[in-house]
Amino acid sequence: MADIKTARTQKELDLIEDVMGSSFLEHQSYVTYRDTLLLKATREANLELMRKIDAFCEEHGIKYFVYGKTLAGIVAYQDFLPGYSRIDLGFLRPEMDKFEAAFNALTDEQIEELGFKYNPFFTDKRYKNIRRIYAHIDAIEYTYVEDDLDILYGDNTLPMVIRGMIQATVFDEVPDDFFTRKKFYRQMKRRSVTFRRTIACRHMNEANYEDGYGAIIDRHMLRYKIMPLRLASWRIHHLAKRYQGRGMSNVTRMLSWRSYTVPKSDIGEIQRMNLAGLMVRCPDRPDIWGKEPILETTPELRRLQNDAKEIVVEIDRVCQELGIQYFACGGTMLGYVRHGGFIPWDDDIDIGMLRADYERFKAEAGAILDGDRFFLQTRESDPNIPYLFSKVRMNDTEYITDYNKFRPFHKGICVDVFPFDYIPNDFAEQRSFKSKVRGKAKAHHRVVNRQYPKAQAEEMPTDRKNLDWMIAQNNGKILAKHYWGISLDETQKDYDETVTCYNDVAEEEGLEYVASFVPSYTMAKVEDLYPAQRVEFDGIEIMLPKNPEKFLRMQYGDYMVPPYPHQRVGHDLLFWADAEGVGGGREAENDFFSGENNAGEE
């Protein structure tokens, strides 16, 4: 047997050998080795290219910053993320213009000496001088992929060669006003889609069309075929610069897929951090893209976990008194099986109930719950909640995220309560039903996400009130009024009627599976859920499914393998506070959280 690290049992290894062949693992180990060398060589080539770019920028006083997965790797490892070799390079628009001007001033000899080329245009001669979405910075020389013995060869028997390539991404200023920004985002999205589809039309042939490559443009084929690529490119690049130099305080990557919108102050003067031995420029606040891994539970996290345990102890008491069955699910169940309690970086508890018990819990638990300390949050008790499930909140606490910060409802520390509904036994019917239910969930969240809060609408200085601003305000307020006119009771009812449609016929049709659809899809066999078992969980007793391993394998696959360190992060909280006033979060010192949003008073 090949000497490779594996979590497989001997039975699983024997099956692999029997089905895939006796030499499969040996061959696979070589392929993995070859791919690893290719990844290592690509990293080294990109680092060398980045070193040259950094020196060029330093010489010409140009500020860049790394972001995205590159920054996440720096924060977690001071290196690349596992399996990642790309360097995500960003410039604010003025700095990108300086970079382009400085490079264009070089002679051919100077470019050769520099060791890289800046290519903002398509390389295909048919599209000469048409700007691509992202400019490419390419190393001039190729390098061979080698090990200690010799050059490596690919499946085509040719030597494996690579050269460094880094995409230069522009971050543009975006409007500070909420409605103007939303309007700008919609315009950029339409033009980005048009540009990408216009490019796709020119690279299609009969073969890849049959493979489905052309599905995205099938309905409007003629429109994108006749659209001049130069015009499509100009429209997107021209619009992206609309608010440049107008003193806006936020920036984002607007071209193609939009990135986080971040304050320019968070990018700041830019600090240097270590990427695999190379000190590169990074934003002043690297936590925009890279969170510090949580390798062991912090005292602050332990306080949140303790509050969650208090809530679930109360839920357990109420369920026992009412004769309602529940079970721990999601990360809580995974934490019990893999860690013997909480996942070290998790801060909440998830429980599930079959729909009949869930409806009883909503209807009857409120009368038994300790109302001084806890609040049963349902559509009926707190109509403004954006969720399609219920929660039990702890009064006089706060748990605020980007998603809920402006919406008026109780935002205390909570335990999520998910309903599980019967689904068909047949796989094809399960797939169809899942799609139908998720469509209803999307319709609900489309309304929620367009019920713009008044707190977002900022008063603009008189000198900025132009036609663009007036159109955005008018359209934004009309949209907000329209969507606030749609009752979440109705979207919830529409969702519930769809998701529960198999419950009444479950016994008659012998249905075996149940599922929870939001916020993510989770399914299990009823026989693997009940009868639930009572277990000790981090000092308290809770109910766990009968066969948690089967449930977890269905949901997580190889669930006993912990995630990479950089994936061990908790919820991204803006602010939290327990009943004793101890708290934290990204914006714990922000005036917005000065007490005006007391969860118990909403």
UniProtKB/TrEMBL annotation:
Highest taxon in the source lineage: Bacteria
GO biological process: one example: glycoprotein metabolic process
UniProt-listed InterPro entries: LicD/FKTN/FKRP_NTP_transf, LPS_cholinephosphotransferase
Sequence ranges assigned to domain LicD/FKTN/FKRP nucleotidyltransferase in this UniProt record: 319-557
Pfam family, one: LicD
This protein's name: LPS biosynthesis protein
The species this protein was found in: Slackia heliotrinireducens (strain ATCC 29202 / DSM 20476 / NCTC 11029 / RHS 1) (Peptococcus heliotrinreducens)
Organism taxonomic ancestry: Bacteria, Bacillati, Actinomycetota, Coriobacteriia, Eggerthellales
